[in-house]
Amino acid sequence: MLIRFWVQGYRCFGKRVEIDLTDKKNYRFGKECVRGDFLDKMVVLGNNNAGKTAFGYAMTDIVSTVGGFSKDIGQHNVECFLNKDVGAERATFHYDLSRKGSVVSYEYSKSAPDSVVAEKLIVDRRTVFEYDLERPGMFFDPDLIEGCPAPDGRKSVILSMYESHAVDPGSPAGVVIEFATHSLYYMAMWKHDVHIGMIDEEDDAERFVVQNGHLDLFQSFLKEVCSIDIDLFADGDRIMIRKGSSALPFRESVSRGTMIACRLYAWTVRCRDRNALIYFDDFDDMFHYRMAENAIRTIISQNSAQCIFVTHNTGLVSNDFLRPDCCFIMADGELRSLSSLTDKDIRRGHNLEKMLREGEFDPKAESE
Question: Which domain holds residue 124?
Fold first, then answer.
């Protein structure tokens, strides 16, 4: 699982911005949001244009760099790729992954979306391989890696390995490949599927529900999570709504929020048992506040993947199903947890949303 990530020089991040999932506090509540010593289910808030979407793009850049997925939803725009404020010549992405007591650190730099100029892989502080195309030579440890291909400035070395031969899943490179090929960025949209990872083509949520025999489960999801009680049946690959002796097509007749709920259901089912990261960007767009709360409760309780939920709904900042160290604010190029933004001893009975609205966790106020 991911235990730390940082990025620098990418899009709006001129300086290094980091999320440290080892910064777990000793709260006696919200235990379902942590896994062992690490944060597992998190919420990120922030003003518009604070960098929440860009951070999601950054965290899942590994999906294409190592996983080989080519779907581009704007994250690979050449003009926006490098930070202009500091005149960055490369963007650097760093991942620390925990696997069976070991820490695998993987870092790479890119001068453009498809140009990898530096890369290094370390396991428990022992370098597996390392190179920088601006400096001569490449180091690799033959005891830790076999068949290490020479860098070509286009593909990452690990992607070249992944495409050329089978890689041991338990090896350092295998750990990185598993994370890259199983992680997902998802943005809630009504008419179109917007995602990075797992599949390169556009997702058809209706078809997924029908073809995988999930129609009854999806109907229960709508009733229990969304408070929408409708009678569904399948017509080919399409979902229909039964209305007496007639029927309505699901996609064309439901609300925008309900269609987004269908997409959310399909992706959470796909990712339910994956050992990876899911970045849900504006996951509750067009959701009623109770529906958003029910959705996040359901995903937290049923999904084994690490999840980051991006929202503008302050009602989700609650000790009822989250905790202060799992709630983050993106502001001024920094990502900080609520627990790091106050000196108060927060207990379960505290109203986090009220404290947030009253400025208790205002990063500017805290730093003055």
Answer: 61-182
